Amino acid sequence: MSENNILAVILAGGKSKRFGNEKIYAKLGNKTLIDHTITKLKKNYSEILVISNNENINLKQKDVYLTQDLIEGHLGPLVGVVSAMEWIKQNKKKYNWIATYPCDTPFFDESIISLIKNCPKKFKEKLFFIKNENRRHNIFGLWSIELKETLLSDIKNGHRKVEEWANKTGCKIIETQTQNEYSFLNINTKDDLEEAEKKIK
């Protein structure tokens, strides 16, 4: 499986209610949160798509694109996923998969990227998630484009939670043994950002 068959997608469509303002612009060290993620992904993917409902986001990097949720209402990550699939169709891209990453988990181990990209070589499933220390991380995932119509229909019928939809659909768990204690530090509040700044220092 070549990375040319996989589109990297950063899910950044949340309202950042707990953070208090648009957290993807929050500075951590000398980069914004979203730039931390973009920097890692650009080493491994030819194109990156950011899903955000903030019309004022200014992405100046080459091969980094922006699209909004296909369905209005801030309905969660599943809408971001299907929006990425629709973007592929509308822009006549030839990707067979999308690999999803959060915009607010800046320390994730880059070995996770390799694990995700190698899934289709080893397994026949259409949906994959990373698991670490008995916790499944549903935003670190690989989704076959073939899931699009089922996903869109289920969203319209009220499905909102990734966990429940994935359990219904069926998914493959990919274990990671990363020793980085901050790898899955999710920055939802200003306190989380302060914790992350300690790590940077």
CATH uppermost class: Alpha Beta
Radius of gyration: 16 Å
Distance N terminus to C terminus?
A: 37 Å
Mean pLDDT, all residues? 87
| Major sheet details | 7 strands, mixed
Give the SSE string: EEEHEEHEHHEEHHEH
Strand order of the largest sheet: 5-4-1-6-8-7-9
Number of domains: 1
CATH architecture: Alpha-Beta Complex
Uncertain segments: none
How many β strands by DSSP? 9
User: Which structural class best describes the helix and strand composition?
Assistant: alpha/beta
Q: Tell me the CATH superfamily.
A: Spore Coat Polysaccharide Biosynthesis Protein SpsA, Chain A
Helix content, binned percent: 25-40%
CATH fold name, please?
A: Spore Coat Polysaccharide Biosynthesis Protein SpsA, Chain A
Shape: globular
Give an overview in words:
It is a single chain. With 201 residues, this protein is α/β, with parallel strands linked by helices. The protein has helices spanning 33-42, 77-90, 111-117, 119-122, 148-156, 162-169, 190-200, and strands spanning 6-11, 27-28, 31-32, 48-51, 64-67, 97-102, 127-132, 135-144, 172-175. The protein is built from seven helices and nine strands, in the order βββαββαβααββααβα. The strands form two sheets. The chain has a seven-stranded mixed β-sheet, sandwiched between helices. Strands 2-3 form a two-stranded antiparallel sheet. Helix 2 (77-90) packs across helix 5 (148-156). It is globular. It starts with 5 loop residues before the first strand and ends with a helix. The model has no long low-confidence stretch (mean pLDDT 87).
